[in-house]
Write a structure and sequence with these properties.
Strand order of the largest sheet: 1-4-5
Shape: elongated
Number of domains: 2
Structural class: mainly alpha
Number of helices: 8
Distance between the termini: 18 Å
Largest sheet: 3 strands, parallel
Radius of gyration: 16 Å
Helix content: 40-55%
Order of helices and strands: EEHHHHHEHEHEH
Number of strands: 5
Length: 151
């Protein structure tokens, strides 16, 4: 513990209970393309993988995937923010460990992370946020944090 300098958090399932929001998000996209809601197995996959991996898993072919990403860019993620449940003692924990330790987030989320940080007023609590878009090989690989050791 003496050499500990940084505490790194995941977003989904650590900072937030995001199951309801993620389920609603992917089911909204599926519905838009006249597909059925996710099965339990599809949800587990989507919840544990990157956005691109989840979309590929749910839609399969390149033409559909391109259309999904184009549609996604028109969506307002704010409608799903109300479904996120911040862990009840998160801010107190962050306040207790800072400034003794630096804090970071390493997440497979992509373009939704800035809205989450703003909505829940978390910017001041973290020194760094690394998303799946910030690295070539996202979690579970940790290379993204190793390259960003300036925190």
């Amino acid at each position: 513990m003496k050499n500990l300098k940084v505490v790194v958090f995941d977003c989904d399932g650590v900072l937030f209970d995001t199951e309801e929001a993620n389920r609603a998000y992917y089911n909204h996209i599926l519905k838009h393309f006249d597909k059925p809601a996710m099965t339990a197995d599809q949800f587990v996959y989507a919840h544990q993988h990157t956005l691109n991996e989840a979309i590929t898993h749910l839609f399969g072919n390149e033409e559909s995937i391109a259309a999904v990403h184009a549609y996604r860019q028109t969506m307002d993620y704010n409608r799903f923010l109300k479904l996120l449940r911040i862990e009840p003692h998160l801010v107190a924990l962050l306040s207790k460990i800072r400034p003794r330790f630096k804090t970071a987030i390493a997440t497979n989320r992509t373009d939704t992370m800035p809205a989450i940080m703003t909505e829940f007023d978390l910017e001041a609590h973290f020194d760094m946020v690394v998303t799946a878009w910030d690295v070539q090989r996202p979690k579970p690989l940790t290379r993204g944090l190793k390259r960003r050791t300036s925190i």
